[in-house]
Amino acid sequence: MTRRDADPTTQGRTQTLERTQTQRPRLYRVLLLNDDYTPMEFVVMVLERHFRKAEQEAQLIMLAVHHKGQGVAGVYTRDVAETKVAQVTAEARQHGYPLRLVAEPEAES
Ligand code: TYC
């Protein structure tokens, strides 16, 4: 962080201000959206392979999405979240499935 110092002894030169708090990157939720055509097994496989879920948890997340319309597959920094959305969407399309995912920022803490 820099600012022009009003102190006349530093003659308006740019001063460096120290900040002791470490900045944490904003995190993004990757949401899985329900649809009527993507097979349940494909969604479970996606959760296991791309979001590192154990089979039981993957099943629970998939069923929650199936019943509620959407659910959180994982939480990542922006780049990772957007890459997962792109990779999984591409894989679904290769199989002819309409599966949709979106990345959305978490509320700031
Ligand atoms: N509703 C789908 C079916 O009945 C299964 C499904 C679950 C699809 C989760 C997408 O994100 C999803 N085959």
UniProtKB/TrEMBL annotation:
Give all residue intervals belonging to the Adaptor protein ClpS core domain: 24-101
Q: Where is this region: Disordered?
A: 1-21
> Would the keyword Hydrolase turn up in this protein's UniProt record?
yes
Question: InterPro entries this protein is in?
Answer: ClpS, ClpS_core, Ribosomal_bL12_C/ClpS-like
Look up the signal peptide feature and give its range: none
GO molecular function ontology, one term from the record = peptidase activity
Which keywords accompany this UniProt record?
A: Hydrolase, Protease
GO BP term, pick one: proteolysis
Spans of biased composition, class Low complexity? 9-21
Subunit record text:
Binds to the N-terminal domain of the chaperone ClpA.
What family classification does the UniProt entry report for this protein? Answer: Belongs to the ClpS family.
Instruction: Give the function comment from the record.
Output: Involved in the modulation of the specificity of the ClpAP-mediated ATP-dependent protein degradation.
Protein name per Swiss-Prot or TrEMBL: ATP-dependent Clp protease adapter protein ClpS
Gene giving rise to this polypeptide: clpS
